[in-house]
Specification:
With 53 residues, the chain is mainly α. Helices cover 75% and strands 0% of the residues.
């Protein structure tokens, strides 16, 4: 089973803001592990790309 997701411009903007928030949160809570935020961002970008394709 497959689904197609269409995002409005507002939803895309909201996702971008969510990504920014998550980066800030990760840095604030796990700042002692500099690789963790980048790993999280990579996972979020991959998921976002799947939604956009």
């Amino acid at each position: 089973m497959t689904f197609k997701v269409r995002l409005t411009r507002v939803a895309g903007t909201d996702l971008d803001r969510l990504l920014d928030f998550l980066v800030e949160w990760e840095l604030a809570h796990y700042g002692d592990n500099p690789d963790l935020p980048e790993q999280a961002m990579s996972a979020l970008r991959a998921g976002s790309a799947r939604l956009k394709s």
